[in-house]
Amino acid sequence: MTDASKPKKEIKPKKNPMPAQDPVERARNFNEVALGYSREAVIDEANRCLQCKKEPCRQGCPVEVDIPAFIRLAAAGDFAGAIAKIKEKNALPAVCGRVCPQENQCEKYCTLGKKHEPVGIGRIERFCADWELATGVKVPEVAPPTGKRVAVVGSGPAGLTCAADLAKLGHEVTVFEALHVAGGVLMYGIPEFRLPKAVVQAEVENLKKLGVKIEVNSVVGKFTTVDALMEEEGFDAVFIGTGAGLPYFMNIPGENSCGVYSANEFLTRTNLMKAYMFPDWDTPIKIGKKVAVLGGGNVAMDAARTALRLGAEESWIVYRRSHTELPARKEEVEHAEEEGVKFAFLTSPVEILSNDDGWVTGMKCIKYELGEPDASGRRRPVPIEGSEYIMDVDTVVVAIGQGPNPLVPRTTKGLELTKKGNIVADLETGATSKPGVFAGGDVVTGAATVILAMGAGRTAAKSIHEYLMNK
Amino acid sequence: MFKILEKQVFSPIIKQFVIEAPKVAKSCKAGQFVILRIHEEGERIPLTIADYDREKGTITIVFQEVGKTTTQLGQMEAGDYIKDFVGPLGEPSHIEKFDGPVVVVGGGVGIAPVHPIARDLKAAGNHVIGIIGARSGDLLFWEDKMREACSELLVTTDDGSYVRKGFVTDVLKEVIEERGKDNIPMVLAIGPQPMMRAVCNLTKEYGIKTIVSLNALMVDGTGMCGCCRVSVGGATKFVCVDGPEFDGHEVDWLELGRRGAYFRPEEQRAMEHHQCKCGSGCGGAK
Lengths: 471, 286
Ligand SMILES: Cc1cc2nc3c(=O)[nH]c(=O)nc-3n(C[C@H](O)[C@H](O)[C@H](O)COP(=O)(O)OP(=O)(O)OC[C@H]3O[C@@H](n4cnc5c(N)ncnc54)[C@H](O)[C@@H]3O)c2cc1C
Ligand SMILES: Cc1cc2nc3c(=O)[nH]c(=O)nc-3n(C[C@H](O)[C@H](O)[C@H](O)COP(=O)(O)OP(=O)(O)OC[C@H]3O[C@@H](n4cnc5c(N)ncnc54)[C@H](O)[C@@H]3O)c2cc1C
Ligand code: SF4
Ligand code: FES
Known about the structure:
The structure holds two protein chains of two kinds. By secondary structure, chain A is α/β, with parallel strands linked by helices. In chain A, 33% of the residues lie in helices and 16% in strands. Chain A has helices at residues 23-26, 39-46, 56-60, 67-75, 79-87, 93-99, 106-109, 121-135, 157-168, 185-188, 197-209, 226-231, 263-272, 298-309, 330-339, 407-411, 442-445, 450-469; strands at 149-153, 172-176, 213-215, 237-240, 246-247, 260-262, 290-294, 314-318, 342-344, 347-354, 360-373, 379-383, 389-391, 395-398, 402-403, 437-439. Chain A is globular and about 65 Å long. Chain B is built from nine helices and 16 strands. In chain B, the strands form four sheets. In chain B, strands 11-10-9-12-13-16 form a six-stranded mixed sheet, sandwiched between helices. A five-stranded antiparallel sheet of chain B has the order 5-6-2-1-7. In chain B, strands 4-3-8 form a three-stranded antiparallel sheet. Chain B is globular and about 55 Å long. The chains are: A alpha/beta, B alpha/beta. The interface between A and B is large, with 44 and 44 residues. The complex binds flavin-adenine dinucleotide (2 copies), iron/sulfur cluster and FE2/S2 (inorganic) cluster. One flavin-adenine dinucleotide (FAD) is lined by residues 33, 43, 45-48, 62-64, 66-70, 109, 112-113, 215-218, 244, 260-261, 264, 267, 270-271 of chain B.
């Protein structure tokens, strides 16, 4: 066939729409919002791909998944081939297909996106991963035992990935997790309606099939230390993937009033402890009539949407900058808007007001305007003098960021830390300042993304393997 | 799963369990606590480590039935299993050899957490004066254990039904007057919030440093949620990782009390829901 005879592909300008629960209905339930493509839709979407030689999408992917290749396989209906291709680089596709900020990554660079909507890469990825979960995941081959033992601290995406890769290489891996279930933020932070917990637990089960031991209820830095794991418990190496679990507060007056939650508390009560099923489940959550969520990231969107589902009459995002600067995934902002979350932009609280019982009755806010761009290139918000007003709210959720939990860093000898308390690790290898100890994910980078944590776990597994085999 | 090896009933609402938890027993110290969850749908509740046996790998807890989870826990028997049991959490008590006698005060179920601290203080060479009290004699427990852990022990009951009548603060005041305020370097008090607060008010008058163990509401117990935050000396602290012990004169008791009461209507609802799920009036036993 000559080039001239090749039929020119007609380009469909828009992505196949993602089937979703009706916004009015879903804003009151915890079932997954995005329902996933049908087989027809996924093949149609995959056929939109131009199979660009230069693979710009792939360069936009933090772990360089061979995107054109897996899309080609999906287009041909070979989902087993497609998922195998994805898994060469991404250990958690069912999760990433749902929560990656594709619009800033692969889809941002997609050739189609220049004139039209980019290929729905994340949606195709999700379909392939769900297809695999539904048809039964093949347990990968495990190399013969090396006799080496590795401890993985934390079972978020970084820890899970690192553990899986090391187990496949024949090492004996034990994961220590502080909470009573494995999964990290995927279990306690990201809500059920965005990432069903069954999907996360399926990944955890796959890990167990590789022979990885998961010890929940195990807070390293408390029942043992990293040093003791190596010196007394006979582990040859340790990977630290303890995430960024320490909630930041605003440090404004009234922040310890009743009705002020950190996003972590609000989401943990709801997701991990299933407070939305109270009193059948024991953990309560109290939700007022009018909820204000402080912040503009994914965490803030999750909290605001959760508040609606818990029965809030109004749920507000209060954000210092404007709509364009919202750091959350675009899809989450759109979903929040559709569901009726309201936005107070260029606004920041200065004090939380309470009644005689210490319960929140309102929030004193100040208005901002956008000034000159700051170091991050975003226009810096500047407070407008005299613009204070009182926002009438009874519940406040603080979602302005998280830092590294100090329990492990504080109890590990000779571990170099940044000023903010993050562990210093070589991004190419995951090696820390302490021999035999590696780290990756949010505990190194600060709060980031699932895919970056996954990638860091994978990178560290590679260098831990080298370290163990040369030891 | 964590096996309940022994159960003792001190009163209809105060019970003791010895639980098989080798990982916790191996490393715990006086002043630390555990968080447990009875079953899959359960709440995570904090309880102090009242005793431990490193060789047998066991932890002793003593709890008072105040709501849904503690009541349900009280219905469990030796041989039953608790789903989750994590610890040791929190910072251990600060144990040193003080210059002069130290006083430890345990009120109600607070007697249990005071016990290992008193024992360690004595082992560090201190003269430990123990004061324990309860509303009435039948609610008092561990008198023998405390007598052994302390150098001397004073017992009181609010209603005078056992030994003597009076609050622990009445006895503490007598001890301070008798020994002289400058001779007592430290008081440690654990019990219900009003009691700890009363002790602090008293010792503040005398200028005696006072340590209390705060029972804030908690979820994770690892510093991740901030539910347990409390103002101490004007700064926000997380009780689960910065405490549970703090300088009682610096604690914002009003805030602690208010935050602790925030979920009271829900707690009541949980209790009512628990008391009869089956409709047969089983009291939640089924
Ligand atoms: C609400 C919310 C929404 C988010 N939404 C998105 C999104 O849409 N897309 C996206 O890409 N990213 C999102 N993120 C960010 C993403 O979830 C994180 O970047 C990622 O989970 C980090 O992975 P990790 O493995 O480094 O740590 P984590 O997922 O934080 O896991 C760390 C684990 O370590 C455990 N641990 C901590 N200390 C100890 C200890 N001492 N001993 C034992 N275990 C310990 C913790 O309990 C936890 O389970 C979101 C985050 C939050 C909070
Ligand atoms: C570090 C720590 C150590 C503790 N050690 C012990 C212990 O050794 N023995 C023991 O009996 N209790 C102890 N507690 C208190 C215990 O955790 C609570 O009694 C328990 O969580 C109540 O659960 P519930 O479901 O039975 O009652 P809920 O229904 O939750 O509450 C019923 C009543 O108890 C009050 N309450 C709830 N939680 C607490 C709390 N954390 N502290 C004080 N009052 C509370 C509520 O305000 C309400 O009035 C400790 C608490 C902390 C934070
Ligand atoms: S850039 Fe877009 S169109 Fe080109 S190969 Fe990647 S997904 Fe296909
Ligand atoms: S209980 Fe969550 S931070 Fe203390």
